Amino acid sequence: MTESVPVPDTLVVAAAIVDDLTRPRRLLAARRSAPPELAGGWELPGGKVDPGEEPVLALHRELREELGVTVELGAEVPGPVHGCWPLTRSLRMRVWWAVVTAGEPAPLEDHDRVSLLDPGRWHDVAWLPADVDVVTALQARARPASDVH
Ligand SMILES: Nc1nc2c([nH]c(=O)n2[C@H]2C[C@H](O)[C@@H](COP(=O)(O)OP(=O)(O)OP(=O)(O)O)O2)c(=O)[nH]1
User: Is the CB of 38 under 6 A from ligand 1?
Assistant: First the structure.
């Protein structure tokens, strides 16, 4: 009989960087340049939390390393599985709204482009598959109640 082997669970943290936390209009997307199997896919900037690292501190570190920016984080955007967004069998992601407080976002590491997506065009890039639902949720939360018909 085979016993099921526990799947290692790695937490990824990512930021939905927008122009305004109260009334988000533009969303930052970053295009991956590595590894080859992910290159060309667009994602929310971020990365894996190191062992023992606080998730929020990991996110600030990743955004500094990858984009050269300092951010202020807003609310977390909870996902459907214990507040997380499932990526693969072994990866799950937590996402926070964010605004840049210092620096100009640039593709310094792991990305070859960053793009600011205009209102209504947040789905216009080829997001990594797991990000499509995240972006749908972001869009729904960004739209003020008065705009929902
Ligand atoms: N940062 C980020 N990663 C995502 C998103 N969607 C998604 O499927 N992923 C996947 C891609 C990667 O397999 C994994 C994140 O790993 P990473 O390569 O960005 O992590 P890292 O910068 O810490 O790099 P490393 O330690 O693996 O070298 O999560 C997303 O929106 N943002």
Answer: yes
The residue segments making up the domain with residue 25 are: 10-137
Q: Is 74:56 a contact under the CB 8 Å cutoff?
A: no
Specify the pTM. 0.93
- The phi, psi pair for 136, rounded to 5°, reads -60, -45
Ligand 1 centre and the CA of 118: distance in Å?
24
Read off the amino acid at residue 124.
Answer: D
**Is position 5 within any domain?**
no
In the structure, what pLDDT confidence band is assigned to residue 3 with cuts at 50, 70 and 90? low
**Average confidence (pLDDT) over 9-18:** 97
Q: Is the CB of 87 under 6 A from ligand 1?
A: yes
**Helical residues (DSSP H) of the chain, grouped into ranges:** 55-67, 131-142
- Look at the chain and report how many structural domains it folds into: 1
Determine whether the shortest distance from the Cβ of 106 to ligand 1 is under 6 A: no
